[in-house]
Amino acid sequence: MSDNFDVVIIGGGPGGYVAAIRAAQLGLSVACVEMRGALGGTCLNIGCMPSKALLHASELFEEAGHGMEKFGIKCGKPAIDIARLMASKDETVKALTDGVAFLLKKNKVEYIEGRGSIPAAGSVNVALTAGGERMLAAKNIVIATGSDVATLPGIDIDEKQIVSSTGALSLPKVPKHLVVIGGGVIGLELGSVWKRLGADVTVIEFMDRITPEMDGEVSKTFARILKKQGFTFNLKSKVTGVKKTKTTLTVTFEPAAGGEAKSVKCDRVLVAVGRKPYTEGLGLKEVGVNMTDRGQVEIDEHFQTSVKGIYAIGDVVRGAMLAHKAEDEGTAVAEIIAGFAGHVNYDAIPGVIYTMPEVASVGKSEEALKADGVAYTVGKFPFTANSRAKVNRQTDGFVKILSCAASDKILGAHIIGADAGNMIAELTLAVEKGLTAEDIAYCCHAHPTETEAVREAAMATDGRAVHM
Predict the structure, then answer these.
(1) Which of 109, 200, 211, 320 could form a disulfide with 104 if both were Cys (CB 3.0 to 4.6 A apart)?
(2) CATH of domain 4-58+81-147+276-344
(3) 56 is catalytic
(4) Cα dihedral: 347, 348, 349, 352 (round 10)
(5) Coil, helix or strand at residue 30
(6) In degrees rounded to 5, what are phi and psi of residue 235?
């Protein structure tokens, strides 16, 4: 067994394992160091995939209980078996993580279980999970250690009554009342799961709207839909404390600008205020790697840190904390190390919220274009005017395309609708390839499909939508 590698990657999440596979495909000798005991990182183990398993199951439960009778299908009142639901989720997660291990083996990547650190450039020390240490020599090191849950001062997460996203994925029973601190993607997705399964859900958000990074019009529409589903929102509010007893929690909060305090009683609190880069124990400062004030690893345009031969990708560096962004960076850094021209277009990284309806976006929002002084045209088409959405009784939302007023190039796109996460792919390709709204408008779309709304929105940028 050799301890000398062309590339050693610390972290086996989406960025790390993709970087490892791509580097191996390009003929490099590669090791991937992961301390979790299962590959796939946060995404596969305690993030993207288990949450989607619960979202899908809870959507089926909601549909069986409230959505089928309008089609003439009578099911009776459904019941939820939480233990079986969680077992199904765990089975899916294991299949996925085992699949990543198979892919590493198939591509001749050595998977080393343990905690990696960098004592010096060109060296990775691994505290092996099985005991002992192993020192690796690496011509190149890639930091792909991902992120961890962000916390709030004075609120202790016990993963029982006060939970992070990790604990919210494994609750043993449906809460009576779940308070979500944070109106972002994670809080709204997990809030949706437990709302559908029977919990009352209250969201407390510091900003003046949920999903504050999103296009403003989409955010307002999204909030209105979630309110119809039974969510309660307290916006422009900051949580000042959580008082705990054996069976109840009292969350106190007050206006963000100051004012009279309020409180709400519940039996579970989900702290969902974002994530922070995970760099603990890597020895980065000691080896000379520059960090930002936010704890991110500083990199140049080739993903290299301030220390030659040490690279970083994914959640530990600037940009959105998204698995597919990390995957793109993993591919790019492997290609750069191998001597090719790896590249990531950060304007063409889609974002999706997997609630029902879904919310998806790519490129610029209206607010960003206004701030940059860019003249743009808006094309919008509602799903109430889309034939397939009408047939499916899923007419909430719209497609919105923002194109350059001078060149017609698509600058941004935003969708709120039942299948937004899939539909955004077409518009991501458009942004990536510099296509115009007219290019989309003249492309034939199958009928009847929800994607016709994309074409109609593109046509609407020129005031010629047909079905509206």
Answers:
(1) 109
(2) 3.50.50.60
(3) no
(4) 110
(5) strand
(6) -95, 165
